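Standup notes, protein team

Yesterday: finished cleaning the Pontibacillus yanchengensis set.
Today: DUF3854 domain-containing protein structure.
Blockers: none.

Input for DUF3854 domain-containing protein:
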Amino acid sequence: MGLVTEETIEKARNVDLLFLAQQMDEPLQRVGGNYFTYRNGGERTPSLSISPQKGMWKDFSGTDGGYSGISFYAYRHYNTSTPKGRDFIESVKAICKLCGITIEYKNGKQEENNHVEYKARKEINQVATKASVDQLHTFYQEWLRLNSCSPSHKEHLKEVRNINPSVAKVRFYRSLDAEQKERYKLVKEMKKNLGEPSGVPGFVLKKGKYGPYWTAYGKAGLMIPFRDIHNQIQGMQIMYDERPQLVQSSGELQVQMKDWSNFIVINSSTGEKVGEYHRNQLPLEFENGNVFIELGPKYGWFSKAPNEEHGILDGAEIGNPIPYHCAVPAKALLNWTVHKGTVHDYQHHVDSETVWWGEGPLKGDIASEYTKQIHLQVPGVNQWRLLLEPTKELMPKRVIFSFDADAQTKEETVQVNVLNAIEEAKQELQPLGIELAIALWPAEKGKGLDDLMNAGYRPKIVSIP
């Protein structure tokens, strides 16, 4: 019919993301103010988050995300959050048809879609600007200094991870207390020393009975710092003491959460409402499927954006790009922390000619104790591109891929991501003279490289031509 008008494109771009996801029949699970669904490729635990109050969506196991309806629809249907050409226009038209937007063409023709009332996203509160690299490090270092590692976390690190208390202390593993008064007290002391932590992910200004106050946000757990190759802490993840419990469905059933406790069950084949239920009634069994509780993510970022609706006046997201982690042996880290500089300055403690790529900060920390080499870690395989720039700055002779053992066997998801990472990394690194290799081991000997090495085994290193 001709070219679509800019007004139509803007309406598609600014559609309410939750409304769009519901129109796309996404299996949504509400966790607080966010809604989780499954990322492309399939997974057991949903890790793609839609945040209506922030007007954004994010694939926490990958690098995709965005603020527009077009980016979300294109991700789902074209596997890219930045569609171009025909894919872009087709995404716009599809959103219009799903969400009740009249498609207007530049030649004056129209295509009406009146089956549902269009819902635009609300005006979004501006997310606080993330603090500078130096500010982040200063605040995080002071925050970790003020906190301690609880006996239960020390026991976990020692008995499960094979990390003794002295190493845990050097690595600054600390506990985020469940007690809100304790958090407030420690943040108050930090603020007295450094000023307000505005723009530092993890710290929020909350409405209070006696006025706004700064505190730390997040579920209780073990705080794990992410350091860059200059040993500056750029963010933290929390290993939760208690994983969130998500309401899941199977078969022909779909769940729509009304709030944390109440939900609607829908027949995905017919669109008919089966009924409304409460968490206390779970598990539920039907002829065409089941509804049950499944544990959510084990780790989460220490961060929170402003949300006046929930009393959070100031805060900051972990940001884009998210941090990577540079893991080195504890002895090297101790000297590095005292004397500053780049990781190159500690070649007598760490071999910088070989750099390992992997996932998970704890796994990298553990493995580096055995290899005495640098391990650059990302939260998930899909985020491997975050490691390109620090690797180019380090300029090692060799990079070894050491993602989890399921990367070698999981055909539809992780394995494909690792293969794609290898192919793209070859184009980026081999022209610079950096050799590539992959670490292989039987999955039954350990899921991660840390498990393998803690069990007394070593991987087979295979060169990549």
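Follow-up from PR in the comments: DSSP finds 13 helices and 26 strands in the chain.
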